[in-house]
Amino acid sequence: MLVAGLTNPLDFATAKDGTGRLFIVEQGGTIRIIQRGALLPGPFLNITNLVEWGGEEGLLGLVFHPLYKTNGRFFVNYTRRVNGQLQTVIAEYHVSSTDPNKADPRRKKILVIDQPFDNHNGGQLAFVPDKFLYIALGDGGSVGDPLGNGQKLGTLLGKLLRINVDSGTPYVILPDNPFVGNPSARGEIWAYGLRNPWRFSFDRGGTHRLFAGDVGQDNYEEVDIIRRGRNYGWNIMEGFHCYPPPTANCDMMGLTTPIAEYSHSLGEAIIGGYVYRGSAMPALQGIYVFGDYLSGKVWGLREVLPGTWQRVLLLSSGKIISAFGQDASGELYLLDYTNGIVYRLVQAG
After folding, report:
1. Is residue 290 part of a domain?
2. Which of 33, 167, 212, 306 has a CA that sits 20 to 30 A from residue 287's CA?
């Protein structure tokens, strides 16, 4: 155990500013700091007055700008309700000019997206490796994607987005995004056909592949490697299987299938993790570590041959896992949602 005393922790981030601080997102609308192994008493940011939370809503994601050490910029993903309409908000904040452990409460909204239902809001934000901001959005919720958002290029829901927040007001669409120039598509889209991507990350090694855990509907959870312009199949498929069951045949033309899946006999909500690139657990080097929210199981995926992946059970934690974290050294952490605890993963024995 690293620290306890958190309330519904959902995300873990580092500022990469040389301080070694760890930042923990609490679902209700606060961000806490762990410094030198201790949880600081006051929040780094408190936006509980802005956030609607509960279920799959709340303050869902945090990322620091790659140049945070000099520009003090960071970004959050949260849900709010305005005149009865649930919305996802991507907003920019800055660190206080007088206290490095406090944020300036003033914000700039980058994106505001109406949500048709209260679930499947996604939440992850990331910058690596090309200095552009990546944003994960779920399909808008309910059951089975009734609005077909996953397959609609005219909506941002059910997508992974890629934008430039260093130019424009409030951002610029990248000219090499795959659907730029398509009048029926949103130019922000990097990939589509996602149900509810709950945590994605870039591998720090090699070609910086983007791994995502996409939460399934009734039967299967999946791990995807996200690539430019690809369609990951929802709601035509769930994992490797046609949706809805018992559909035996579906048109898979143009769809990209997962690198791995597991059935709901093993767990019911995937928690995407990280490819391990630290030094404390050499046996896990290069393995993608991920888990399941309800079963508490933690697995590793190893690419034994190009495109062929083998899943191995690493740990039965007995915890309600809401997220994994990765520090500046590449070491991994696990967030226990119910008990408000951050654990550091270490090699057995």
Report:
1. no
2. 33
